[in-house]
Structures are given as structure tokens and as C-alpha cells.
Design brief:
7 strands; globular; 263 residues
Length: 263
Amino acid sequence: MNTLDLLKPRPGLRVLVSGAGAGIGAAIADAFLQADAKVYVCDVDPSAIEKAKARMPALNAGVADVSNREQVDSIIDDARAKLGGLDILVNNAGIAGPTGGVDAIDPDQWERTISTNLNSQYYFLRKAVPLLKETSDCPAIIAMSSVAGRLGYAFRTPYAATKWAIVGLVKSLAIELGPSNIRVNAILPGVVAGERMDRVISARAESLGLTYEAMREEYLQKISLHRMVTVDDIAAMALFLASPAGRNISGQAISVDGNVEYL
């Protein structure tokens, strides 16, 4: 096989992407569609799903709160019916969570962050892994962590805690599922340009008593390449991990962040 061909995911791959109404998830779904995959997405926002389907008519889609186990079960069942099985699970759904000192964070916001970012990964895994075990076509799980899953992140403790936990989950599952030929990896995005990051910067600036502009510059100074990454950078890594070129990559936490030095 030509080396360049190894970089292309096999046409017809059956892919499920959670939290894909917008942002990173939507970019990943679009990239897989462009690679001739069959893609199913879900999101908690019905309007986001409608916009995604209007932009990408080939999408299969459903609405679900990923922190709700029963709703996730329904999504997996619908995806199996629509796609005819599953080859790739992209556990992408997540929220930014609250910003503030640990003694000031509302317990309900803490629990919501843990449930949405971490419990949801398990809810998808428990139903998707049996489907992945049924396919021999290079099955893979891609979990979305964060640069906050390798660095401490003051005033964002619930978010960072979930992202570190996802890395532990991935490394454990790579060992557990390796004998079934299922690869498991985490992508750790850095500072991703877009509306979500703008909101995070604004919230952190307010918490620290800084202007938005000063806070944004502080973020950039922490990055070796002095620039944010894009959703397309993350999508490209997901495609690589799903391609034959990634067939021996498992148990890895791969940063796509321009080398964030500290948070």
C-alpha cells in the first residue's frame, strides 16, 4: 500500500461523534464525512443539530443530554440502526464548567461538570464497546480530553479533574480492549480559537479582575508557538487516529496545542 494511502480512513467507516452540534465535534463530523464515512452525531441542543444537518445533509443525528444514561442508550441504539454497526466512537461531548475558587464553586455546577464531561464517556462506552468488538475494521475510540488533562488549571478545578480522569480512562481501556483489537486514545486540545474559548477567557478575566484583551494575551504567552489551534487541527488528528497509519497507536494522550507550557 502507498504510504499516502495509509493516511486516509477507509471509506464507509461508521462513526459516532457526541457533542457534535458545533465546535470541535462538528469539525470532526465534517472531516469524517469528507473522508466518505457514515456519521452519526448527537447534541443536547436541537437547534444546533438542525443547523448541522442543514450544513451537512448526509449526517445522521439525534438529540440527547449526554449526562443522562437512558438518553445515551437511545442514541447508541439509533446510531446502530442507522449506521448498521459502529467502527469509531468519538467521545467528544463536554462543557467548560464553572470558573472560580474551589471554595466558591456551586456544588450543583461541580456535579454537572463531572456528569457531562466524565460520566457521559462511560455511558457511551458501556453501549458502544460491544458494537466495536463486532467489527474487525480497525475499531477505535477517541476521547476528547484537554491540555488541562496534563497541566494544573487554577480556578477551573472541576473541568481539569474530568480531563485528567479521561486520560486515566483511556490508558486503562487501551490495556483492557487491546486484546479485542480496539485502539483507545485521547486528544488533548489546547487553546482552541472560537466562541467557547472567548467565553472561557471572559470568565477567567472577570475572576482575576483583568480585561479580556489582557487575559487573551496571557493565554497566548503560555503557548510556545504563540497561537491558538483551530477545530480543523483537532479534526485532522481524529482522522489520523482512525486511519491505517494510526493502527499501532493506542493508550496515548496526544496534545494538539502548539505546546502549552503552563495554565
